[in-house]
Amino acid sequence: MHDHAPAPAPEPTPVPAVPLTLHFVRHGKTVFNTTGRVQGSSDSPLTAEGREVVRRTARMLADIPFVAAYTSPLGRTLQTSELLLAQHPEDVPLTPVDDLRELGFGVYEGGPEPTIEEIRDAGGDFFTAIKTGDHSAVVTPPEGEELDDFLTRLRRGVATIVERHPEGGDVLVVSHGGAIAAWLMLAERDGAPGPTADPTTLLPNASVSIVRYDGGDVPEILVVGATEAEDVERARRA
């Protein structure tokens, strides 16, 4: 009988020397935001006020050494990304990621934004459904995107970004209020510690939400919807 050496233990997943920190920024205020119209996967340009608030956010983030930037491919997020990166003299590569698009609201896009009560009555209380994980009461808008499809692509999009940066570092991710809030709620459901996204309140335009991966697949949520420099700085020091 021959003695067999024990099988080697599997290699542990390498932990990056530097944590990976994702800085999610919602696009600036648009014409549709100002006039109270549904955007979703349709588009409208930033207003003058929207551009100015994005520039203010850009100054808040100016000292962060981003190694890369990713954006939804819609015009309002591309415009926001360019304004944010204008504060960075170094060449930060910007990559559009289709999976970061906002939820598609079908025939409702371009129409007046409904109230929270109207949304719930119509079976469109998406954020509460995402936060609880119970999608049974959600009704997809005509020609709109299925909620499960939306969440699947959001997970895929952010996972792809994380996989591209095993060395860690600071990364900018420009997306939409609904998409960022939905992903944060998914992370919370996965066990991510930290502040939570409120399903009854939209993230402010040009606000910053930060998560940190420091080994493992579940990040820590550091701040949600920050609009002040001191809140961003406090989160980054955490």
Structure description:
This protein has one domain (20-113, 144-237): Rossmann fold, CATH 3.40.50. The chain starts with 19 loop residues before the first strand and ends with a helix. It is globular. The chain has 8 helices and 6 strands; from the N terminus they run βααβαβαααβαββα. By secondary structure, the chain is an alpha/beta fold.
Give a nutshell description of this structure.
This protein is of the alpha/beta class and 238 residues long. The chain has helices spanning 31-35, 48-60, 75-85, 116-121, 126-132, 147-163, 177-189, 229-237; strands at residues 20-26, 66-71, 94-96, 169-175, 208-213, 220-226.
Report the span from N to C terminus. 58 Å
- Give me the number of helical elements: 8
| Spatial extent as radius of gyration | 19 Å
Runs with pLDDT <50, length 5+?
A: none
Give the domain tally: 1
| SSE order | EHHEHEHHHEHEEH
Structural class: alpha/beta
Q: Tell me the overall shape.
A: globular
**Residue-averaged pLDDT, rounded?**
88
Going across the major beta sheet, what is the strand order?
Answer: 3-2-4-1-5-6
Beta-sheet strand percentage?
A: 15-25%
Q: Got a strand count?
A: 6
In helices, the fraction of residues equals 25-40%
In the CATH hierarchy, what is the class? Alpha Beta
Q: Judging by the overall fold, what is the CATH architecture?
A: 3-Layer(aba) Sandwich
Describe the main β-sheet briefly.
6 strands, mixed
Under CATH, the homologous superfamily reads: Phosphoglycerate mutase-like
CATH level 3 topology? Rossmann fold
